[in-house]
Write a structure and sequence with these properties.
This protein is an alpha+beta fold. The protein is 54% helix and 16% strand. The chain contains 11 helices and 12 strands. The protein has helices spanning 2-25, 29-82, 97-101, 132-140, 191-226, 228-245, 265-315, 321-354, 370-388, 408-426, 486-496; strands at 107-113, 118-121, 145-151, 154-163, 182-189, 367-369, 393-399, 403-405, 436-444, 447-454, 500-506, 510-518. A hairpin with a 2-residue loop joins strand 3 (145-151) and strand 4. Helix 8 runs parallel beside helix 11 (486-496) and helix 10 (408-426) runs antiparallel to helix 11. The longest helix is centred in the N-terminal third of the chain and has 54 residues, at 29-82.
Length: 520
């Protein structure tokens, strides 16, 4: 039964402890910090007060013992001048003139013979009691003995010294206990000492309480000032969340938490939060721009298809067959363009959905001979240019045997996008041109570098940082066909292959795109 009750109490304590921790964790961070700060401050003040009391008590006790020793030395010298060299040694009336003339306040001196009879007392109103145990301890030791007793209701420190015959005074340690002819008691009242220590204790307690209150008040204010950025951060996050829930425009994301001065951890938290807001604002604006651009790109072919079909349905009997075929061909072309655009959007959407998720490959990616795939694609592009009748040339600057890991179709799609862009922006708007495209592939350490250069219209410096954004089209490229998704798709596919794509360009002279992939 006892074991069951103990186990039940132990289980209840285990259940109560997390509850207490949970209740404690609901308090504000400022309050919890103040609790620990106040606890440590209280502990420090307590240790300081105890150490101070200990040091002062030791000093006062040493001074008190020194005063008693001085009186004992004076009384002993005066006493031996009054003793007779022969038995019974003691005079009929013992007087200690040095003590009677220079009596120290709070000090009591008594002399007893070997039979315990009091022979002298400096204060007859304050008699000291010498118990048998102390007497026995004194007879076993030739050194003075100290003990505490009560005198008139006050504590007193007493020193007991043995009195030996005058001829044995020089070497008392060589005498037997029966040769002791009396004892000398010197007592010092500890009333003043206890009063001083009590006053010191009260002063330390009062001072400690004042310091504790002042430091807690200052600490509360300092912590409030220090944690103010966190409070502003919480208010800002709550305000943004509330505005977002009410469906406000993206402009409410342009607010920022005021950064505190300095570079401490609080400033770093505020900087990280503001940077997160910048990213969210940029991402939200990008998403809205993406939706608007996608809607625009989808609306154009849909409008063409809808208009052609509506016209055919209404005037099908009146339209000549040749014109009907032309309108159907236009609708079919816009349908193909629409399908291609939807495929590109789906590819980007899948890439966004898989972004940030850990990839656990079940088996290594296949090895792709990049040099062979590039040469094959160059031959196909040259054949296409010959069929189109353009004088645009594709030259090979240097091809080294390179093998990489990845999906061959995705790698080929990246190269097709780069070559298509080079062809599109190198020839004139009429589809002709005498420009040149150079393709090169080489090894650099443990990486393969694919370079596609052209002598086309180039890219303005203000547009160069944005060319990989979705639906972004530079001013120089708006007159050419395209949706602005090609380079965004190329960057997404290259990043999936753990690679990197960069661009350099000079307006009017051409552009160079570099794709860096890890070697197999």
């Amino acid at each position: 039964m006892f074991l069951k009750n103990s186990a039940r109490r132990f289980g209840n304590s285990i259940r109560v402890t997390p509850f207490l921790f949970a209740r404690w964790s609901t308090h504000s961070l400022r309050l919890r910090l103040m609790f620990w700060y106040g606890s440590l401050l209280l502990l420090g003040l307590t240790c300081f007060a105890l150490l101070m009391l200990l040091l002062v008590s030791n000093v006062i006790n040493e001074n008190t013992q020194g005063a008693v020793d001085s009186v004992t030395h004076v009384a002993m010298n005066n006493l031996y001048r009054s003793l007779s060299p022969q038995t019974p040694y003691w005079p009929a009336s013992l007087k200690l003139d040095a003590l009677d003339n220079y009596r120290s306040p709070g000090m009591t001196v008594e002399v007893f013979n070997q039979h315990g009879t009091m022979l002298y007392s400096s204060d007859l109103r304050s008699a000291l009691d010498l118990d048998y145990t102390t007497w026995q301890r004194l007879t076993r030791s030739f050194k003075p003995t100290w003990y505490n007793t009560d005198v008139d209701g006050d504590q007193a420190l007493v020193e007991i010294s043995a009195i030996y015959p005058p001829q044995q005074q020089v070497h008392p340690s060589q005498s037997a206990s029966r040769d002791m002819i009396g004892i000398l008691l010197v007592a010092k009242s500890l009333h003043d000492v206890n009063t001083t220590l009590s006053s010191l204790q009260g002063l330390l307690v009062l001072t400690g309480a004042i310091i504790l209150v002042l430091f807690l008040g200052c600490g509360w204010a300092v912590m409030g000032y220090t944690l103010r950025p966190l409070s502003d951060l919480v208010k800002m996050a709550g305000s943004i969340a509330s505005d977002t829930a009410r469906g406000k425009r993206v402009s409410h994301l342009n607010r920022r938490v005021r950064r505190p001065e300095g570079g401490d951890e609080m400033s770093q938290v505020v900087d990280a939060f503001n940077e997160m807001l910048n990213s969210i604002e940029s991402s939200t604006a990008g998403q809205r721009r993406f939706i608007a651009d996608a809607s625009h790109e989808l609306r154009a072919p849909l409008t063409t298809i809808q208009g052609n079909l509506a016209f055919l349905i209404r005037y099908i009997d009146e339209i000549p067959p040749t014109e009907r075929r032309t309108m159907l061909a236009d609708a079919h072309g816009e349908t193909l363009r629409l399908a291609s655009l939807v495929d590109e959007l789906l590819l980007l959407a899948r890439a966004d959905a898989s972004m940030g998720q850990p990839v656990v490959p079940t088996q290594p990616a296949p090895i792709v001979e990049l040099d062979r795939a590039l040469l094959k694609l160059v031959r196909q592009m040259r054949r296409r240019l010959e069929i189109e009748g353009t004088t645009l040339k594709i030259e090979i600057g240097g091809i080294e045997p390179v093998r990489v890991r990845g999906d061959e179709e995705n790698i080929r799609r990246v190269m097709v996008i780069l070559l298509d862009n080079a062809i599109k922006y190198t020839r004139t708007e009429e589809g002709k041109g005498e420009g040149k495209i150079t393709v090169a592939l080489q090894r650099l350490g443990k990486q393969a570098v694919l370079r596609v250069s052209d002598t086309g219209i180039g890219i303005e410096s203000k547009d160069l940082p944005h060319i990989f954004e979705r639906f972004y089209r530079a001013d120089l490229a708006r007159s050419r066909e395209g949706t602005g998704l090609g380079l965004a798709i190329a960057q997404t596919l290259v990043e999936q292959l753990n690679g990197r794509i960069t661009a350099e360009s000079t307006p009017g002279e051409g552009s160079t795109f570099r794709v860096t992939l890890p070697l197999a």
